[in-house]
Amino acid sequence: MRLEGCEAPRRSAGGCRALTLRPSPPAMSRRVVRQSKFRHVFGQPVKADQMYEDIRVSKVTWDSSFCAVNPKFVAIIVESGGGGAFMVLPLTKTGRVDKNHPLVTGHTAPVLDIDWCPHNDNVIASASEDTTVMVWQIPDYVPVRNITEPVVTLEGHSKRVGIISWHPTARNVLLSAGCDNLVILWNVGTGEMLLVLEDMHTDLIYNVGWNRNGSLLVTTCKDKKVRVIDPRKQQVVAERFAPHEGLRPVRAVFTREGHIFTTGFTRMSQRELGLWDPKNFEEPIALQEMDTSNGVLLPFYDPDSSIVYLCGKGDSSIRYFEITNEAPYVHYLNTYSSKEPQRGMGFMPKRGLDVSKCEIARFFKLHERKCEPIVMTVPRKSDLFQDDLYPDTPGPEPALEADEWLSGKDAEPILISLRDGYIPVKNRELKVVKKNILDNKPPPGPRRHSHSASEPDFSRPALEEVLEEIRVLKEMVQAQEKRISDLENKLCQFTNGTD
Question: Is the distance from CB of 427 to CB of 122 less than 8 angstroms?
Answer without folding.
Answer: yes
